[in-house]
């Protein structure tokens, strides 16, 4: 390609399609093939592969009505034989149909898509087409370089497969044999090089674990093979590859040429790879837009727990309005178009106290719509039911993992395989086990046999959503609660701490004392008070002390304390139960809660109804008793019970919400909007820098449902930490959890360096000077593992076997260590993907069964002496994907913050720096670890002393580097193949075609 081409970019690749032809590069759309010269192209079109492709026809975009997806016409045969297609087509003969008529569209063989003819020129100049075109040229050059040519053959497979770390450390060797089949050829082996040895001007050089050496001194290639030894030496678990380039010279023709081979090696546990590998390839799930509607549902028998509470008010149906449903069901719009459509068509133009309920009701409906769609993932076909008495038992894969989550009182639809379409029976869940649920149907449910097959659908439990709608429909519009401003700040002097503190640990903590004093002294009808509690600063202890101080202060005070989860609510109740008796404290549970899920010390503080019902369950005592309790503790949604049974508005003087950052605003307001009056005080505690609520709908997220109530308030001027300190907000700053080195980075990035390390030295220094630490005084390790992320079957969740193996190695070492003793309960393993959690649990089975392995969400609010983080992602598809696609969950700053702040004494992060380094936050963190001597494994692939670009862009840099390296290789292959060795003019051979020795 001439260097003076006006279309050449800085990367050296021409972007114009016509120019490619002028520069002697040809493409074959029939085969999706790129030839680097006319001779190679002519050889290709005369070959069998091309003729077969032409016989089959030029690719056309076909549409499969069964799978509802586009299929390349050349791939239709393979597609139609697939298991998923056959199941969806139900063995019927479904013909493919052309999506786009050929007279109006052109099929791009490079991008494998159909383009409207009037947009064809624009497509040829689009970034995506150019990117795929460059890659196709590179692949053509790479494939050509891997061919034996000019009579020279290279025998031997440079794949070391899977090596145990001990073998990798000592080194393994593979011999490759070079010979020539042309008797009188004068070809010599000039050199053998690795691509890493050739160097890259774009990346920091990292030493290759491969090395090559020529056995003996002979360089002439003949029928007597030249032996080249390829050695691999690497002890660290991971996947490694390099390109071996054999440089030859044909002395008769004065031509240089290259033959290359890709060398591969995996360091790891062969048995683990076999046990944990994907059993079936990942097939993306396509939502069935023509899903059979449920025209008739015969309701089953509801469990007694649904009537266990004497509700005085009815829940609203609150079905999604048809006009909103129609808008959400339009699939032709882009995500941004849907956001704009909902925003302009359904949300109030002004977000105020008067429009507050309507605003959030629409967002809750949008979220519900996505939840319904997500639940379809768990539909089952050809399932069987077991029967015992009047219960029908259904095995539910993933039940123990809450995928799907099934509670007593939920509904599951079943339809016999051959029954009339649309006719379903709703089985109400009466029993929930580890692997199966017990259902009760209507008495008309007939025809059961042990072998009868059923179709299964899980239905969304709408009660939590209905409770939110019920609260949002109330007329509570207090501006001091919904939209507090500086005018609501108290004008009185800063209050003094109470004289007698119940928990003596608080007595020396000024921030905690100030928070308690402000809550206790606040006048009725004050603006909401926020206790901003970063990791390990004791926010739950603080609100418990504030509750106890309020109870001691005034016998008329009544408190409703809630949290998003049962575990968080139980923690509050357990701490309060150490001081309050069961006449003062009531732990209110939903009737669906199982007795075995309740901590034993809290049983005396709950009400378990047993009056001869077929299943006893939790309930509430009579109203007179409920009114006498000084403190009632529940989850946010279950807090609606007090309103439902007729508790009068204003009964509670204070409403506390712990972990408020994890709840949506409508969830937080279930209690506030139904129970607060002009005198009620609201206290929120949490950390908006940690995980927010889990939102499934991308539309609802963009429209603000993911923004928690506490985070929205903190952004308001009344909660400025300087002017509002002690009046509207207190930030806790003493961290009682982590070693200073573990705390330092998140402290700087998220908390303005305000946090003070105050943890017990005996705990946080437990692993200093241990073998786990490259720097014996720095208790953080980044273990570099360049693995492979994978998926299987229909699950979109990623797993990485190489990182699983490395996690197991660390856990086994920790458990064996007699000097630095570590139990299962001291270790926590965090992975951002469910599939990785399952693989790690499988690997640790029988080794460390009690080690908690879970998602970031499962570890919020928890701590362990040792935390191991498996980041999972190790995709190298920089050419095709952007940073969000490549990093996924790992790129979330909140997930990062929660993950790295769980550890007390030892933090081990396992991951691929090539991927993690695309994100500025992770790159800064890896630099911090590297510069403090905590790096383990292959070297860091960038200069850690360079300042990090906080704006990001590293994904674009990585993609451009990959493209530039591809172009370098392609250009080098052209030069070495087309130019004579003695030519002085570097452009002399540019127009010479490649020599076709065949």
UniProtKB/TrEMBL annotation:
Predominant localisation class: cytoplasm
Compositionally biased residues, Basic and acidic residues: 989-998
The organism's place on the tree of life at top rank: Eukaryota
Catalyzed chemical reaction(s): ATP + H2O = ADP + phosphate + H(+)
Intracellular or extracellular location(s): Cytoplasm, Cytoplasmic ribonucleoprotein granule
Keyword RNA-binding listed: yes
Zinc recorded as keyword: no
Keywords linked to the UniProt accession: ATP-binding, Cytoplasm, Helicase, Hydrolase, Nucleotide-binding, RNA-binding, RNA-mediated gene silencing
Start and end residues of each U1-type domain: 23-57, 59-92
One function term, GO molecular function aspect: ATP binding
CC terms in the record's Gene Ontology section: cytoplasmic ribonucleoprotein granule
SMART domains reported for this sequence: ZnF_U1 (SM00451)
Family: Belongs to the DNA2/NAM7 helicase family. SDE3 subfamily.
PANTHER family for this protein: CANCER/TESTIS ANTIGEN 55 (PTHR45418), CANCER_TESTIS ANTIGEN 55 (PTHR45418:SF1)
Protein name per Swiss-Prot or TrEMBL: RNA helicase
Organism, as annotated: Agaricus bisporus var. burnettii (strain JB137-S8 / ATCC MYA-4627 / FGSC 10392)
């Amino acid at each position: 390609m001439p260097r003076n081409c006006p279309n050449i970019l800085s990367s050296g690749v021409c972007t114009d399609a016509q120019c490619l032809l002028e520069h002697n590069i040809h493409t074959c759309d029939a085969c999706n093939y790129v030839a680097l010269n006319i001779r190679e192209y002519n050889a290709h079109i005369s070959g069998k592969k091309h003729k077969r492709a032409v016989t089959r026809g030029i690719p056309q975009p076909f549409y499969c009505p069964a799978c509802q997806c586009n299929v390349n016409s050349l791939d239709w045969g393979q597609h139609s034989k697939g298991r998923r297609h056959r199941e969806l087509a139900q063995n019927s003969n479904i013909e493919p149909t052309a999506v786009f008529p050929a007279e109006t569209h052109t099929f791009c063989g490079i991008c494998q898509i159909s383009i409207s003819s009037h947009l064809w020129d624009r497509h040829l100049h689009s970034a995506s087409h150019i990117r795929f075109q460059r890659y196709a040229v590179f692949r053509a050059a790479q494939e050509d370089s891997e061919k034996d040519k000019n009579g020279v053959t290279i025998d031997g497979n440079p794949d070391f497969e899977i090596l145990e770390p001990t073998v990798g450390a000592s080194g393994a060797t593979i011999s490759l044999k070079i010979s020539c089949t042309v008797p009188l050829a004068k070809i010599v082996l000039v050199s053998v090089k690795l691509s890493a040895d050739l160097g890259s001007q774009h990346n920091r050089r990292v030493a290759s674990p491969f090395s090559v050496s020529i056995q003996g001194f002979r360089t002439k290639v003949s029928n007597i093979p030249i032996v080249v030894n390829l050695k691999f030496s690497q002890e660290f678990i991971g996947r490694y590859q390099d390109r071996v380039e054999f440089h030859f010279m044909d002395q008769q023709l004065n031509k240089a040429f290259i033959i290359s081979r890709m060398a591969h090696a995996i360091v790891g546990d062969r048995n683990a790879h076999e046990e944990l590998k994907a059993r079936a390839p990942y097939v993306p799930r396509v939502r069935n837009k023509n899903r059979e509607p449920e025209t008739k549902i015969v309701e089953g028998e509801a469990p007694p727990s649904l009537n266990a509470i004497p509700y005085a008010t009815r829940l609203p149906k609150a079905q999604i309005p048809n006009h909103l449903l129609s808008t959400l069901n339009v699939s032709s719009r882009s995500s941004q178009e849907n956001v704009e459509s909902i925003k302009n068509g359904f949300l109030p133009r002004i977000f105020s106290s008067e429009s507050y309920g309507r605003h959030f009701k629409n967002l809750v409906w949008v979220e519900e719509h996505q939840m319904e769609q997500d639940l379809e993932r768990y539909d089952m076909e050809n399932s069987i039911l077991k029967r015992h008495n009047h219960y029908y038992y259904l095995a539910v894969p993933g039940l123990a993992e809450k995928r799907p989550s099934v509670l007593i009182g939920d509904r599951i639809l079943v339809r016999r395989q051959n029954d009339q379409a649309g006719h379903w029976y709703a089985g109400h869940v009466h029993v929930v086990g580890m692997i199966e649920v017990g259902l009760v149907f209507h008495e008309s449910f007939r025809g059961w046999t042990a072998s009868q097959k059923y179709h299964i659908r899980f239905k969304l439990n709408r009660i939590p959503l209905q409770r939110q709608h019920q609260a949002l429909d109330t007329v509570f519009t207090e501006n001091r609660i919904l939209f507090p401003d500086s005018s609501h700040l108290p004008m009185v002097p800063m209050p003094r701490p109470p004289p007698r503190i119940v928990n003596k640990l608080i007595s020396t903590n000024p921030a905690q004392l100030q928070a308690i004093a402000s809550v206790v002294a606040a006048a009725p009808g004050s603006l909401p008070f926020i206790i901003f509690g970063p990791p390990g600063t004791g926010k739950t202890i603080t609100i418990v002390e504030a509750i106890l101080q309020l109870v001691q202060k005034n016998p008329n005070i009544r408190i409703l304390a809630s949290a998003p989860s049962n575990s968080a609510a139980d923690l509050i109740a357990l701490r309060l139960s150490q001081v309050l008796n069961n006449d003062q404290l009531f732990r209110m549970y939903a009737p669906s809660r199982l007795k075995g899920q309740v901590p034993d010390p809290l049983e005396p503080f709950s009400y378990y109804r047993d009056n001869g019902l077929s299943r006893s369950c939790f309930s509430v005592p009579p109203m007179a008793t409920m009114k006498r309790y000084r403190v009632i503790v529940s989850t946010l949604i279950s807090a609606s019970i007090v309103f439902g049974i007729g508790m009068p508005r204003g009964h509670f003087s204070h409403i506390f919400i712990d972990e408020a950052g994890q709840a949506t605003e409508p969830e937080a307001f279930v209690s506030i909007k139904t129970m607060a009056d002009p005198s009620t005080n609201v206290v929120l505690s949490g950390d908006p820098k940690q995980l927010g609520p889990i939102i499934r709908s991308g539309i609802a997220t963009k429209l603000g449902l993911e923004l928690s109530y506490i985070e929205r308030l903190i952004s308001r001027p009344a909660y400025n930490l300087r002017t509002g300190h002690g009046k509207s907000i207190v930030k806790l700053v003493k961290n009682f959890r982590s070693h200073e080195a573990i705390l330092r980075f998140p402290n700087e990035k998220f908390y303005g360096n305000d946090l003070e390390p105050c943890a017990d030295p005996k705990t946080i220094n437990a692993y200093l000077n241990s073998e786990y630490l490259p720097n014996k005084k720095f208790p953080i390790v980044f273990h570099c593992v360049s693995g492979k992320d994978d998926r299987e079957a229909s699950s979109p969740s990623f797993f990485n076997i190489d990182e699983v193996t490395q996690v197991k190695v660390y856990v086994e070492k920790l458990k064996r260590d007699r000097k630095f003793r570590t139990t299962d309960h001291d270790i926590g393993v965090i992975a951002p993907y469910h599939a990785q959690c399952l693989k790690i649990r499988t690997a640790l089975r029988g080794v460390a069964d009690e080690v908690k392995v879970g998602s970031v969400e499962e570890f919020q609010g928890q701590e362990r002496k040792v935390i191991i983080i498996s980041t999972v992602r190790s995709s190298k598809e920089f050419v095709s994907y952007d940073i969000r696609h490549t990093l996924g969950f790992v790129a979330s700053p909140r997930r990062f913050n929660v993950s790295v702040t769980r550890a007390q004494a030892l933090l081990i992060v396992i991951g691929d720096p090539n991927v993690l380094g695309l994100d500025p936050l992770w790159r800064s963190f890896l630099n911090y670890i590297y510069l403090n001597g905590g790096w383990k494994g292959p070297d860091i692939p960038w200069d850690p002393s360079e300042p990090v670009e906080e704006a990001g862009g590293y994904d674009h840099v990585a993609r451009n580097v990959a493209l530039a390296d591809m172009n370098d290789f392609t250009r080098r292959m052209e030069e070495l193949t087309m130019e004579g060795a003695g030519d002085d003019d570097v452009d002399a051979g540019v127009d010479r075609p490649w020599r076709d020795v065949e």
